[in-house]
Write a structure and sequence with these properties.
Number of domains: 4
CATH class of the largest domain: Alpha Beta
Largest sheet: 7 strands, mixed
Helix content: 25-40%
Number of helices: 18
Bound molecules: flavin-adenine dinucleotide, NADPH dihydro-nicotinamide-adenine-dinucleotide phosphate
Structural class: alpha/beta
Radius of gyration: 27 Å
CATH architecture of the largest domain: 3-Layer(bba) Sandwich
CATH topology of the largest domain: FAD/NAD(P)-binding domain
Number of strands: 26
Strand content: 15-25%
Amino acid sequence: MPPVSVRETVLNNIQSNDVMVFSKTTCPFCNQVKELFKQEGIVYKSLELDKLDNGLQIQDMLFEMSGQKTVPNVFIRGSHVGGCDSTIQAHTDGRLRQLLSPPPAEGYDYDLVVIGGGSGGLAASKEAAKLGKRVAVCDFVKATPKGTTWGLGGTCVNVGCIPKKLMHQAALLGEALKDSKNYGWETPEKVQHNWDTLKNAVQDHIGSLNWNYRVQLRDKSVTYINGYAEFTDRHTIKTVNKRNKVQTFKAEKILLATGMRPRYPDIPGVKEFAITSDDLFSLSYCPGKTLTIGASYVSLECAGFLTGMGLDVTVMVRSILLRGFDQQMADMIGTYMEKHGTHFLRKCVPTRIEQIEEGTPPLLRVYYKKTDDPQEFSIDVNTVLMAIGRDACTSEIGLEKTGVLTNPKNGKIPVVNEQTNVPNIYAIGDIMEGGHELTPVAIEAGKLLSRRLYGDSSRQCDYINVPTTVFTPLEYGAIGYSEEDATDTFGEDNIEVYHAYFQPLEYTVAHRDEAGCYGKIICNKADGDRVVGFHILGPNAGEITQGYAVAMKCGATKEHFDTTIGIHPTCSEVFTTMDVTKASGLDVTTTGC
Ligand code: FAD
Ligand code: NDP
């Protein structure tokens, strides 16, 4: 990814100048455009890329943001006009003047309209209303190809973090049930999991959250519009509800928080027969033998809890597990899951899906091939869960009528401090380029944005050292750099990795694995051994990791970790006693107290 500073340079120039020309002193077309502006008395700012050290990078960034590499590259009030011919055409057909005319000073129905009532949108709208603004939030869920829909609250509440964590807990309880015999509980020999009981309990909880969100919006005087929103211009929104009722209103500022939806591969049978995480948590029947396709968060987490419920589960991996994460940790997750019953089909991709028998669940045949072999294989399963990534919901909201730029590669919206290239339009959460696809990040960004826009705060969202946890059967918590990225960024000679295997005390009596759990910290020697990466694979990793994120925000060094007294007997204490470096090659198996 290009450095953020280049993106900021480009966006800042577009946002702060009514007419912005990215130009080159040697380019006759650039001169033609600038001459036109001069003749028309139009004040413009130009950035001469051939005179700048980072001119080429700016040009690459402009290509990423606007799809245009050549100069001149003209923007008017944030809208991308294009090159010389497009600018002259816009002048001829009057669009140039139209774009330059100032927005109406009054006549807005709302100060802020938020599109998307998920984690980020709700946080921003409630905060803005608290600060006395007239706010509306539009939220609408388009049904999945299987017809699944849900209520207010977005991905996290309905089809993400919340149901996922509850189902993960169901699987952990299954493990605990096995352990409990060694702790003296005389449980029946055969226990089995009931999908309907779990699914209903999870959906009941979600229903109560949906209701609470509606109450909160009403209490805070935020207008809730349960309609699909689209721009008609950069200040006007049209919504259509499920009865096709259309509403139109104007807002001074508009915040985009439309999130992402699961992606489907272009293979026969996928939309008819496969489900995604959007369908799984409310599935009306037990999924049975399941194939999850993809090897990142969603796929591994779902495969983990379904295995934990006693189902026969296979994960189809195209390349590596958890791309972007520390690969040592990712491989250890795979090893643990494989040892605990999840099957893996590695270096494979699906080619088509057929239904062999109807039913609930049905019997499906998934054809696939190895990434390096054209021969087709097949596997019969009851459920296929596609988890190959998610697409930003930015292509069907009328952005072309506003001039807001998106990255053509992923549909995400480039921003500086959450402001898009069009000054009155903002973006947060999953659709924001360069952010993290995580609920607390969307919430923090939304809340802080509203405080900056309508309060007296200047605090920006801090996207550095964001902690995260993958809720696989053995949880994986991470903060900051992976070992690979730390090596690339600081240089191999400048980093020191301390590590240790550990066995949670609870595993001893239960006769669980001796050394599946592992922790490591990555320190930057050139910066006083500052901890720049934290990784733990073990029970309750999410709970453990949160506290260390505070420490890393305070700039903790190895010495701080070493001089902190541990809590015994816990897993987390391993980080206060880590004295073996990876470079030493010494044994890192922890034994006894
Ligand atoms: P969303 O929460 O997706 O909200 C967007 C809303 O906008 C949706 O309701 C959508 O229907 C609506 N919308 C879209 N377009 C329009 C339109 N034109 N008009 C009206 N409404 C519209 N994150 C974590 O931090 N921890 C986890 O454990 C975790 N687990 C996850 C598990 C799964 C299976 C998935 C899929 C995600 C998980 N995430 C997790 C990620 C987290 O859910 C997202 O990062 C978060 O929900 C993003 O919030 P958002 O506000 O950007 O968008
Ligand atoms: P990701 O985009 O992170 O991963 C997609 C996976 O699918 C990769 O393993 C990729 O393989 C694979 N893949 C892509 N295309 C194909 C294909 N055509 N055939 C086979 N495999 C393919 O997506 P996720 O949906 O897992 O997660 C999305 C985001 O949601 C995450 O970035 C995360 O921030 C958030 N999330 C957070 C959670 C948490 O906090 N615990 C839990 C769940 C989601 P390859 O590596 O080869 O490209």
